[in-house]
Amino acid sequence: MNQDLLRIVDSIARDKNIEKDSIFTDIETSLLSAARKFYGEADDVMCTIDRMTGDIEVRKNGILIDYKEFGRIAAQTAKQVLIQKIREDERGSIYEEFSDRKSQLITGTVARAEGNILSVNLGRCEGFMPRSEQIPGESHKPGERIRCLVLEVRDVGSQVKIILSRSHPDFIKRLFELEVPEVQEKIIEIRALAREAGYRTKIAVSSIDTKVDCVGACVGVRGSRIKNIVDELGGEKIDIVRWNESSQVLITNALKPAEIIEIALNFELNRATVVVNEDKLSLAIGKRGQNVRLAARLTGWDIDILTPPEYSKGLDDLEKVMKTITGVDDKFVDRLVALGIINLNDLDEVGAEPLVKELEITPELAATVLDTARVNAARIAEEDAVRKAAEAQAARAEAAATAMALAGPADETSATAQEAVPEPDANASPN
Question: What are the pLDDT digits (tens) for 325-375?
Fold first, then answer.
């Protein structure tokens, strides 16, 4: 019994996570290559290894031969073939293992940073995290433990390339599964998620159990659960909102903490017009538009935010212009608003077909409505531009007048002081 061979095969299989039978097959292939190198390709050579005893049999033309007589060159050939085959098996094993772990969390150790790419030691191999998959503002040192998402696994030539990510939205989902048992157990479902890595994430959740508060469970007692996730993300803000099948309610939840006065949904344009008070406008929009941008991605609606005067002006202009058209009444305007058309520009974007279908009007009337809306929208836009320019000019003039008024007393005092200083006598002799 060849105990040494069995022990070596067992060790390789355990260290490299390769099936023992594959290793035995590799050894058989390498010995076959050595035999053909020694005897030549023409001879019929066979090699078998007993999986139980480890005994090796090499036969040439059916006759048992001693493979130990192959010589140094043939042995070197066998070694090279065996190394290559085991590397291929290991690569296949790594590819299979990490393919099964795709979209899952994994913990590794930072090995090094090469340019903008972070190399992470995953044990049997290394993963790579490009700059685009790193959280902006984060920096990692060699030897640091790091948690990331297995984003992609590629079999590239002689190696397996594992792409890691900390910026992908699924990274947030996996962290919630890790920290919130109800999410892992599918009691709480993550219905939608929008993220700007390193800055803010909005996540919409729902519960299949009415006794479980989906938002409260995700936050945890005194914020313990969400704090662990935020700490892992380096302080990234996370807004947890309650999912609702009603788009109006969902948009309202997504834009919190801003208070919403009214929402008009235009299904043709997939646009939601949201009305908020002037003092809540900046809160609804967020820093650099981040809040409304994430809310739009979370809900799947294009969101326009208006103040009550802007919203009312659009409706007033729409009503006044529509009433100039023969065959159009208040009921027609109300039905337009019900479709989410709240200003003249919306009509041009929606087009004639929805008007004919939803409002049951003739194509001729629809064409008249659109032409009238287009002409008057251009006229009103020009009038608004002239008015705003006049207001801006008046404001500048007022500011200039105020500045002169403030500077006036100082100039008078300066002039008075200048008059009080006697001019030098040209005839006076110097001291």
Answer: 888 888 899 999 999 999 999 998 999 999 999 888 899 999 999 999 999
What is the architecture of the domain spanning 168-243? 2-Layer Sandwich (3.30)
d(CA 384, CA 396): 18
What is this structure's pTM?
0.77
Going from N- to C-terminal start, the domains of the chain cover: 3-99, 101-165, 168-243, 309-388
* 3-99 matches 168-243 in fold: no
Q: Indicate the class that CATH gives domain 3-99.
A: alpha beta
Distance between CA atoms of residues 121 and 107, nearest Å: 9
CA distances to 123, 170, 322 from 371, in Å: 68, 47, 11
Per-residue pLDDT tens for 372-431?
Answer: 999 999 999 998 899 899 989 998 998 888 888 887 654 544 444 444 445 555 444 443
Q: What are phi and psi of 254, to 5 degrees?
A: -70, -30
In this structure, which amino acid lies at residue 116?
N
Q: Which two tokens stand for residue 378?
A: 């251009």
Could you tell me which residues come within 8 angstroms of residue 110 by beta carbon, excluding any fewer than 6 positions away? 118, 119, 120, 121, 140, 141, 142, 143, 144, 145, 146
First to last CA, the chain: 127
Q: Which two tokens stand for residue 38?
A: 């020694």
Between 2.40.50.140, 1.10.10.10, 2.60.120.280, 1.10.540.10, what CATH number should domain 101-165 receive?
2.40.50.140
Q: Distance (Å, rounded) from C-alpha 393 to C-alpha 376?
A: 25
